[in-house]
Design brief:
Elements lengths: L2 H23 L56 H12 L9 E3 L3 E5 L8 E5 L32 E6 L7 H4 L2 E2 L7 E2 H18 L3 E4 L16 H7 L6 H26 L3 E5 L20 E5 L5 H4 L2 H13 L1 H20 L14 E3 L2 E6 L3 H5 L4 E6 L5 H9 L5 E4 L2 E4 L1 H21 L9
Length: 449
């Protein structure tokens, strides 16, 4: 072969390789082939100890979702029994039967679809023997795993991250968690939650906890902005829809929560995350909102995945991580005491989900505790207590919000009441104090699932 011919052949190889590399770098849309043209089903075998499996990249993902690292689940091989696995799936983590399209279970293993149910790609999770489970790998510690603590400092050594929900400030209107009545100061949920967080932090620290605020101002953690998300928004918007609105929602509902999860999981690595929110009922136009006489309270734990959510590979994977880390037992135990404290402090009735909605399920028969799949409680890599007390546009709660923060009590609607912000912070602190004090002094807890 002449030198010229060799050079030409080398150039062709370089062009082909570059084309392949660029193809791999481009996002792809799922292509569904007719059944007769599909490749033969290929199954990913269970990994021997010390080895990992690497399924093909995922394409059935939620907004801004990352392709799951299925090989990371090899760390959980042999750590859960079939009985516990199925019980958690059936009673906590799902609301329908659609999960059976992606999970095939026998006495030895769960075989899990890693993409569309007909793609042929599977992850095999080996079960432990019924009486021989091993600890699940994780960075967070349960209350039982903490050493004894002084009675006056029951949170000694506990790492807590407080996540004040939403952003507030100049972003409040975009977030659609803002309304104003006449000349009165507007109600901005992101500002309300930050006010509670700043009161709650020193209360928990006085009980011995190490506490970090996930945000301490009204600035987003994500570097992304709606302008940088227009391409993703265009792909996610139905024909005729408002692409700009979609980009805004991707910014504050998705990119911001994912940035907070990155900070929590990689930097803070807490034992517990407290997500602070205020609830609301439909208020119509933000400049002329309707008020309601209703107020209520409930806490959300991770679970209650719908069939539609489990059809997305990243949510199926993230649910498995929560299930296999056993976050639910800790969330239920902590949540029960925090919910009891809220009732004791506020007298608020529980909020009840419409049973026809099928996006939540009650936990342990407690009307204040509901399992629901939210981006924050799914992505944060530890137990999460997601709080939804009060109703911002209830007449009574609105009057308390307008009163602002203050020490002691004031007369509001004919009753002497503390600041709504201090009442909120105190209810959370007292619930955690009660829970960790009894656990670290050896009192029995709810049975672990």
């Amino acid at each position: 072969m002449s030198l010229c011919t060799k050079a030409l052949a080398f150039l062709v190889l370089v062009i082909l390789a570059a084309g392949s590399w660029l193809a791999l770098r481009q996002p792809e849309k799922p292509v569904v082939l007719p059944a007769t043209e599909r490749p033969a089903v290929t199954t990913i075998p269970a990994s021997p100890p010390g080895e990992t499996t690497t399924p093909e990249p995922e394409r059935h993902l939620g907004p801004l979702g990352d392709a799951p690292d299925w090989a990371a689940l090899d760390a959980y091989q042999g750590t859960i029994s079939r009985k516990d696995f199925e019980q958690l799936l059936d009673t906590i983590f799902t609301t329908g039967s659609g999960w059976r399209s992606y999970f095939s279970i026998n006495d030895q293993e769960a075989v899990i679809a890693t993409d569309a149910s007909d793609s042929g790609l599977r992850f095999h999770l080996r079960f432990a023997a019924p009486d021989h489970t091993s600890p699940a790998p994780r960075h967070w510690r349960t209350a039982r795993e903490l050493p004894p603590a002084p009675p006056e400092r029951p949170l000694e050594g506990l790492r807590i991250a407080i996540d004040p929900g939403h952003i507030g400030g100049e972003w409040a209107k975009m977030e659609e968690r803002w309304f104003a009545i006449g000349e009165a100061p507007p109600v901005c949920e992101g500002d309300l939650t930050l006010a509670v967080a700043r009161l709650l932090k020193p209360e928990l620290e006085s009980l011995g906890a190490t506490v970090t605020l996930v945000r301490n101002d009204s600035k987003p953690l994500t570097p992304l902005r709606p302008e940088t998300l227009m391409a993703a928004a265009e792909a996610a918007t139905d024909p005729g829809g408002d692409v700009r609105k979609t980009a805004e929602r991707l910014f504050y509902r998705t990119a911001e929560i994912r940035a907070r999860a990155e900070y929590v999981n990689r930097t803070l690595k807490p034992d517990l995350v407290l997500c602070l929110h205020f609830n609301a009922e439909a208020w119509g136009h933000a400049s002329n909102p309707s008020l309601t006489d209703h107020s209520h309270c409930h806490l959300l734990l991770n679970g209650g995945y719908t069939d539609e959510e489990l059809a997305l590979a990243d949510q199926r994977y993230e649910m498995l991580r929560k299930l296999l880390q056993r976050t639910h037992a800790e969330e239920a135990a902590v949540g029960a005491d925090v919910a009891a404290s809220f009732y004791s402090s506020t007298g608020l009735p529980p909020y009840t989900y419409n049973p026809l909605s099928r996006n939540a399920r009650m936990v342990d028969g407690n009307p204040y505790l509901w399992a629901r799949n939210l981006l924050a409680n799914r992505l944060y890599d530890c137990p999460v207590i997601f709080m939804e007390p009060y109703v911002m546009n209830s007449r009574h709660d609105y009057n308390r919000i307008q009163a602002g923060d203050y020490e002691g009590t004031r007369e509001i609607d004919g009753k002497l009441l503390p600041s709504i912000f201090r009442e909120y912070a105190g209810a959370v602190a007292n619930g955690l104090k009660t829970h960790y004090a009894k656990v670290r002094q050896g009192e029995p807890l709810l049975p672990e699932h």
